Amino acid sequence: MNFVHLAADLGCRYISTALVGRPLKSLGYPAFSLKDDLRLRQHLLTAMDDRCVKISLGERMLIVPGADVSDLAADLDVMAEFGVAQVNSLSFDPDRNRTFDQLAMLTVMAAERGIGTTIELAPGMTIGDPATVLAAIEHVGRPDLRLAVDTMHWVRSGCGTVELHELGPEKIGYVQLSDTTLKPRVKSYMEEAMYEDGAGRRGASARRNPRSGAGRCGDRSRDSDAGPGRIRHGPHGAPSTRCGGGS
Questions:
Q1: Residues β-bridged to residue 147
Q2: Confidence class for position 177, pLDDT limits 50, 70, 90
Q3: Do residues 125 and 94 make contact, with C-beta atoms less than 8 angstroms apart?
Q4: Residue range 12-41: average pLDDT?
Q5: How many C-alpha atoms does 59 have within 13 Å on its Cβ side?
Q6: Count of CB atoms within 10 A of residue 70's CB?
Q7: What is the mean pLDDT of residues 152-180?
Q8: Considering the domain boundaries, does residue 240 fall inside one?
Q9: Is the alpha carbon torsion for 117, 227, 35, 239 positive or negative?
């Protein structure tokens, strides 16, 4: 609940979060589960209502080998209960064809709950370049699947503004601004992506949702992410089911 209050105090209208968080001892974050802990879920809903904060992106709808995204139905139900605008997916399955099929299934399942889907590009992953992103979107064949651009992943994949322009705004559903360096500074890419800022500290990144617009909770236009050690800012226009208004 402290995170929601922090976001509101900073003038942030939206947060992004996963349903389950592992403990992070270095920053004092305990484990949590919004999926299993009904009391925690209700507390979060109450805090969001009280502070007029909403969830613009639900994280960690992962595609992995040996698992089927149909198992995420209950997770999507909880995301819908929170009024989440979009869920974000990342594939750890090296099978490109299976990744595309699973992504299509996830997109349909999310859409049935009124939720859009984004796919995150990352170097070395199955979806690791703009061409594969476009192929995935074409395979799914739905306008509610778009790319979540992480500037760290984007630049480290060798992409720049030219590729972003070629992709086109209609293919971009979310943007995360990461203040990292052009070259790696630690051995673990995932460690660096999740926790390190451009100065080598546990730091900050920022997210933008191109679907901008003001709700009826005032003109605050920042966004925070519930990931450990990260606060993300940017204008958002995510659909609203609370605080008396939508965009």
A1: 119, 172
A2: confident
A3: no
A4: 87
A5: 15
A6: 10
A7: 86
A8: no
A9: negative
| Position 245 pLDDT exceeds 70 | no
Task: Give the model's pLDDT for residue 30.
Answer: 83
Q: Residue 173 carries which side chain, given as an amino acid letter? A: G
Question: Edge to edge, what strands does the sheet with 12-17 contain?
Answer: 205-208, 172-178, 145-150, 116-120, 86-89, 54-58, 12-17, 222-225
Q: pLDDT, tens digit, for every residue of 84-141?
A: 999 999 999 999 999 999 999 999 999 999 999 999 998 889 999 999 999 999 999 9
Residue 15 β-bridge partners: 55, 224
Query: Cα-flanking dihedrals φ and ψ of residue 2, to 5°?
Result: -60, -35
Range of 212's domain?
A: 2-225
- Residue 200 forms part of a structural domain: yes
Inside any domain, residue 10: yes
How far is residue 56's CA from residue 87's CA, in Å, rounded to a whole number? 8
- Residues 79 and 21: their CA atoms lie apart, in Å, by 15
**CATH code, domain with 78:** 3.20.20.150
**Of the ranges 47-56, 80-89, 127-136, 148-157, which one carries the lowest mean pLDDT score?**
148-157
Asked, for residue 230, whether it belongs to a domain, the answer is: no
Model-wide pTM > 0.85:
no
* C-alpha to C-alpha distance for 55 and 229, rounded to whole angstroms: 18
Is there a contact between 161 and 134 (Cβ–Cβ < 8 Å)?
A: no
Can you tell me the distance from the alpha carbon of 93 to that of 205, in angstroms, rounded to the nearest whole number?
A: 26
**Residues 148/115, Cβ–Cβ less than 8 Å:** no
Number of structural domains the chain divides into:
1
43 sits in which H/E element: helix 38-51
